[in-house]
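Protein in question kept in full:
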Amino acid sequence: MGQDSLLTFPCSYVLKIVTTTEVNLTRLLAMIKPHVPEIVETDITVKTSREAKYVSFSLHFKAQSQQQLDALYRDLTAQKEVVFVL
């Protein structure tokens, strides 16, 4: 049996999302909730770039599977306002 991930699930996970300033916390939560229903505002750290062009969100949550992370990454990167996801 091959291993699909180097992570052991469930595990604590931090996902960084950089967006344009068009995305606020409420909008980001709407993007994430289908994949991480238990996420709440206090699980997210928000920073605005020095020139106020971008917003960086750091999500702290318990990842349940590699499939969950892959689906979340795919859905986030499909949004035109999302610059990148780490």
DSSP finds two helices and four strands in the chain. The domain at 11-85 is CATH 3.30.70.260 (Alpha-Beta Plaits). Residues 18 and 55 are 6 Å apart (CA to CA). The longest strand covers residues 11-20.
